[in-house]
Design brief:
The complex is a heterodimer of chains A (233) and B (833). With 233 residues, chain A is an alpha/beta fold. Helices cover 34% and strands 29% of the residues of chain A. Chain A is globular. Chain B has 833 residues and is of the alpha+beta class. In chain B, the strands form 2 sheets. Chain B has a 6-stranded mixed barrel with strand order 2-3-9-6-8-7. Chain B contains 24 helices and 22 strands. The chains are: A alpha/beta (233), B alpha+beta (833). Chains A and B meet through helix 1, helix 2, strand 6 and helix 3 of A and helix 1 and helix 7 of B.
């Protein structure tokens, strides 16, 4: 049996911030490993540091101590542009507030990550557009391709965000409370869609949530408390 | 990813979403103001250059105050050059009871040697080239003379002692110097008719010209031969540097108009900066997402710069198009200055417009937009993170650098640019301080108010920076317009009204010695009191003390002009009543029986300009003879008494025997206008100058100029509206939240609408108050300190300035805000949150 590829690894990862009351430790020397194709849920109360951990794992922030490796690259060796380049095409994101660009249509929002990583030739552009259209179709919104986010419901906006996340064929997806702004019914449908697309693409998933029921759908569950990570049953 | 392609896509998407409308409007307005002026002045310069070699209707001309010696024209002929003669002088034509000061030009059959004289046979008829020059007894005139006299072609007019038939209209005269600034219309007659008019005598003020044309080498040789042989009161005029005097005036006016257009940049720059900051705020999330998705900072920086470049180019081109049509307004306003027949503009103003647009963007928009590239990707998870705030020093420094660069470019002169920038800095600082004070007072007033007044005034005070910026931005536009109104309406009127009722308003010149007594009798018979009939002798200043005088000796333009021209000398026993001897002593009266030695009395201003002191000997060339005498007194003259006065006067014995004409001035009440044709018929060789009409014409010309500047400042006013709109846009999300809360707490829509009206009307009133106060104070300083005129507060200035501004901003601001805020309270709260 082959050893699964490690897509994301954290070793003795720590994050401190300076606040009005002095130094505040958010993460305390935690270790973590995400294998290729694996779905891991990070569960914890509000303010426990889940989103901070997600930001460090995705290379959006710099650790105070320890090391993160993403897709085999140590992030400490890369500057901000290097981390951005590493993310391009390999990492997808789904956010609680959808984070769609309000001045772009649904199709253009899905197209954005493809444009940023496409080649300089016209063929790359055409290929990107057809992939974006395909991704929108997969989330059932091809009829709304020309609509702006303000014209879509919350659920539809999150579907566009999911299409955007999966369109480049990422190796790992980071989702931060993807149903936080949705009602229960819509949230459930979104999660079904998310896991279905993940299964098709084989991407790893790091899901930050406070919903333990949602966490149960992942392969592993980790609990965040006092800056430490613990495996949960 | 190709940065160009991404920039173009983002630019298209930004435009589609309306993100760029405000920025576009500000940039288009700025470039339109600059290019409207640019196209206009470019066409004026083109009109002047078109004349080029035609400017003197020859290759070379000799200009003189006396007839040019035959030997000179004979030598020119011997060298194979063609020649023609012209004679120009001022006089008056009479048609029935109507008279008009005209510029008479007598030409011989060979005129013009270069260029083409063009005529028309009726006002709106086509132009045709003149096949010859006027026949004896015929006069060709400018169309406006017919309008003024109420005459038609075919009518007969009196010029001096001769009658002429109006035969044709002069449409284009190559050496007229364009249609520029000519108050006296042209009358062209045959050279052979001059003697019959009796208007030209030895002492008359005429300009003789000998025109020459031919082979370039022959012309140059001849010029070298004739130059040392010319008398002192004659000069050579070369086609290459025969630029009319007005060209420097046009150049000054052009630079002033350009600088006026730059005030639009100053105010629009604030709108550009506000719009850019708003773009940064609205695009922060988008940039954070793009960085999450893999866009490196250097790519984003390139994309933002390229996007701004493309946008700047397109908006500047649009501004150039608007400016191209906008120049028509200037042409219409200054029709009488330059005429409407101007050549098409070159492409140069387009380059200037684009350059201005790009520099404005670089100074006002680029610095905040570059900060966007530094938005951290972590913002997607932490909303408190955003683009690093641009330091005020860098933002202000970049804007100031752009402004200084543009002012230097347009002014073309370091000193002028420095003065303008200093003036603008002073005005803006004063407006800022006054605006801050008024906003603070508004806040204070809010605490003592109730209902919509409290809401409205509190809204104004709650956003002090935006309110002050709107007051200053709009205030600058209003201030510029009010200042021009003060000059046009108050100062010009005040100057005319300071003249006493009986101030002489007519001058009679070219009075022959034998006409003095009969004229005096005419005055006495008709109960006209003149200021006296004084002799006038033409003399050219050739030396002061031990030094000979030449114009090149003087740096100061006025001194140089005085040294170039002939003086009008006079002689008298007694000093006039409005002359005060301030140094030295006047000579004793001749009746006292003592011998009065030759001496001069000089006006003190002239003495200072030319560096003349008591005791200096002045040497004049009078009718070819040198007249010299020491200066024994200096006089202070009341020039604005409109009495006849002279710079240099001598005792009668020194100048009595020189060729002279006489001059007088008198007041003619309106109900005695009928005396004018009677006077001119009795004395046909006189030239009557109606000062009142001249002043009205000059005032009309000045008023036209002021209206042209007001037209340019209207762009500034529009820019002020943009600043206001930008300020509203910047505060929209906060206002939505405020209104959401107020509506939730029970405030009705009507209440919110009225509170908005109170807020924006207050901003407008404060802007108008600031501007009106500034305009009145500046007007007072100009009148009292600079012009020595009485100054009266003009209540209408305040009415239009304060109320007009309040109304305009109140309406515009309320309309611009209300629509965006009318939504259900919950939606408003959600949108704000």
């Amino acid at each position: 049996m082959s050893t699964p590829e490690i897509l994301c690894r954290a070793e003795r990862l720590a994050k401190h911030v300076n606040g009005p009351g002095g130094r505040l430790t958010i993460l305390r020397a935690l270790d973590l490993r995400i294998d290729a194709g694996e779905a891991v849920a990070i569960v914890g109360a509000s303010g426990s540091g889940k989103s901070t951990l997600l930001g460090l794992l995705a290379g959006l922030d710099e650790a105070s101590d320890g090391e993160v490796e993403l897709c085999g690259e140590p992030l400490s060796a890369l500057d901000e542009d290097g981390r951005a380049a590493l993310r391009g095409g390999r990492v997808g994101f789904v956010f609680q507030s959808f984070q769609l660009l309000p001045t772009l249509t649904a199709l253009e929002n899905v197209l954005l990550p493809l444009e940023l990583t496409a080649g300089d030739n016209g063929a790359g552009a055409r290929d990107a557009k057809s992939r974006a259209q395909e991704a929108l179709e997969r989330v059932g919104l091809s009829a709304r391709a020309g609509h702006y986010p303000r014209q879509l419901s919350g659920g539809e906006q999150q579907r566009v965000a999911i299409a955007r996340a999966f369109a480049p064929g990422p190796r790992i997806l980071f989702a931060d409370e993807p149903t936080g702004n949705l009602d229960q019914g819509t949230g459930a449908r979104i999660i079904d869609l998310l896991f279905a697309l993940r299964a098709d693409s084989g991407a790893a998933l790091v899901l930050v949530t406070h919903d333990s029921a949602l966490a149960q759908r992942c392969d592993r569950r980790l609990g965040m408390q006092d800056g430490h990570l613990e495996a949960l049953l | 990813m190709n940065a160009w392609r991404l920039s173009l896509r983002l630019l298209r998407r930004d435009w589609r979403s309306g993100e760029l409308y405000l920025l576009s409007a500000a940039l288009v307005l700025t470039v339109a103001a600059i290019t409207a002026v640019g196209f206009f002045t470019d066409r004026i310069e083109g009109a002047m250059q078109r004349q080029g070699g035609e400017l003197i209707a020859a290759d070379l001309a000799i200009d003189a105050r006396d007839p040019i010696a035959d030997a000179i024209s004979q030598e020119a002929q011997r060298r194979g050059l063609r020649s023609a003669r012209t004679l120009t002088f001022r006089s008056v034509v009479l048609v029935g009871d109507e008279s008009q000061l005209v510029q008479v030009k007598a030409v011989d059959a060979a005129y013009p040697l270069r260029g083409e004289l063009r005529l028309k046979d009726r006002f709106s008829g086509p132009e045709r080239p003149a096949e010859a020059t006027p026949n004896p007894g015929q006069a060709w005139v400018e169309a406006r003379l017919l309008s003024v006299l109420g005459a038609s072609l075919g009518d007969s007019v009196q010029l001096g002692e001769q009658r002429f038939t109006l035969e044709a209209l002069v449409a284009y005269e190559p050496d007229r110097g364009g249609n520029f600034f000519q108050i006296a219309p042209r009358v062209m007659i045959a050279m052979d008719d001059v003697a019959a008019t009796g208007l030209v005598t030895e002492a008359s003020r005429v300009r003789h010209r000998l025109l020459l044309s031919g082979d370039i080498a022959a012309i140059e040789d001849f010029a070298a031969w004739v130059k040392p042989r010319l008398p002192a009161n004659a000069g050579l005029v070369d086609a290459r540097d025969a630029r009319p005097e007005f060209e420097s005036a046009v150049d000054r006016a052009s630079r002033f108009l350009h600088l006026a257009a730059l005030t639009t940049l100053l105010v629009a720059g604030a709108a550009i900066a506000l719009a850019s900051r708003r773009m940064v705020e609205r695009q922060t999330d988008a940039v954070a997402i793009m960085r999450c998705l893999g866009a490196p900072r250097h790519l984003l920086t390139r994309v933002f710069v390229l996007r701004l470049l493309m946008f700047g180019l397109l908006a500047s081109l649009a501004g150039c198009l608007v400016g191209y049509f906008g120049q028509q307004g200037l042409i219409a306003l200054l029709h009488d200055w330059f005429g409407a027949d101007l050549p098409p503009a070159s492409w140069k103003p387009v380059g200037v417009g684009i350059g201005t647009g790009m520099i404005a963007l670089a100074g006002f928009a680029l610095p905040p937009l570059l900060q966007l590239a530094r938005v951290p990707p972590l913002r997607v998870l932490r909303r408190d993170l955003g683009a690093p705030r641009l330091s005020v020093a860098i933002a202000a420094g970049a804007a100031a650098a752009a402004l200084v660069l543009l002012v230097l470019w347009q002014a073309g002169d370091l000193e002028l640019a420095g003065k303008l920038l200093a003036g603008v800095a002073a005005a803006v600082s004063a407006l800022l301080a006054l605006g801050a004070l008024l906003v603070w007072l508004a806040g204070l007033a809010a605490t003592h108010s109730r209902g919509v007044w409290r809401l409205g005034l509190a809204g104004l005070a709650r956003r002090p920076a935006a309110s002050i910026l709107q007051i200053v931005g709009f205030g600058l536009g209003i201030l510029a317009l009010l200042m021009l109104a003060v000059v046009r309406l108050d100062l010009l009127s005040s100057w005319q009204e300071t003249l006493p009722a009986q101030t002489p308003d007519r001058f009679l010149i070219n009075i022959q010695p034998q006409e003095v007594e009969p004229l005096g009798a005419f005055f006495a018979a008709n109960d006209i009191r003149s200021s006296g009939i004084y002799p006038m002798i033409r003399g050219r200043l050739t030396g002061i003390g031990d030094e000979s005088v030449s114009p090149e000796d003087f740096d100061e333009p006025r001194a140089r002009r005085l040294a170039e021209r002939e003086f009008n000398l006079s002689f008298a026993d007694r000093a006039q009543s409005d002359n005060e001897v301030v140094a030295g002593a006047w000579w004793p009266n001749a009746e006292a029986g003592t011998d009065i030695r030759p001496q001069f009395s000089v006006e003190e201003g002239l003495a200072e300009t030319l560096g003349i002191d008591i005791g200096d000997e002045l040497r004049f060339l009078v009718a070819g003879r040198e007249v010299a005498a020491p200066v024994t007194s200096l006089r202070r003259v009341q020039w604005d008494s409109f009495n006849v006065n002279f710079f240099v006067i001598s005792p009668p014995a020194l100048l009595r025997d020189e060729p002279a004409t006489y001059v007088t001035s008198f007041h003619l009440p309106q109900d005695r206008e009928a005396l004018v044709p009677e006077l001119l018929r009795a004395f046909p060789s006189l030239t009557l100058i109606d000062v009142g009409t001249l002043l009205r014409q000059v005032r009309g010309i000045i008023e036209q100029g002021i209206r042209a500047v007001e037209y340019v400042f209207a762009f500034t006013l529009a820019a002020g509206l943009l600043v206001m709109y930008a300020g509203i846009q910047a505060s929209l999300s906060v206002r939505r939240g405020e209104h959401g809360v107020l509506r939730t707490l029970g405030a009705e829509r009507g209440t919110l609408l009225r509170s908005l009206m109170v807020e924006f009307t207050s901003v407008g009133l404060l802007a108008g108050l600031t501007a009106s106060l500034f305009a009145e104070v500046t007007g007072w300083m100009l009148a009292q300190e600079l012009l020595g005129l009485p100054f009266a507060w003009n209540p209408w200035l305040w009415v239009f300035g304060v109320l007009g501004s309040g109304l305009l901003i109140g309406l515009a601001g309320t309309l611009g805000t209300y629509g965006a805020l009318v939504r259900p309270p919950l939606a408003a709260l959600r949108a704000a949150g």
